[in-house]
Amino acid sequence: MHESVLASSLLSIVLEEAEKYAGAGALRVISIDLELGLFSCVEEQTLQGCFALLAEDSAARGARLNARRRPLPGLCAGCGAELEIRRRDFACPRCGSRQVDWKDDGHAMRITGIEVSENRGVQ
Fold this sequence. Notes:
Number of strands: 6
Distance between the termini: 29 Å
Strand content: 25-35%
């Protein structure tokens, strides 16, 4: 279950980044926005559960993980169309060609936003 390792790393990164803006005192992380690559093999519910458990005694306790799958961009060699796929169907939707130059490997997990409360109290 690699989600527990990902959740641990995610929590460390989020707390470190949030602390840069906190100055002195406590803060509360409200939500974290994530982009998951099409091939990241991250099970979102498992990641959320692991994150919730690990964050219990931290400023990220109760924070929401807002994860969305990132489409995989490519260029079709058959018809020249720029395309994005959202499912694991590797044919060009325009011409059906399977000769597509993918512009991304689809494995990344990126933090795209962190919302931190102005209220300094940790609940």
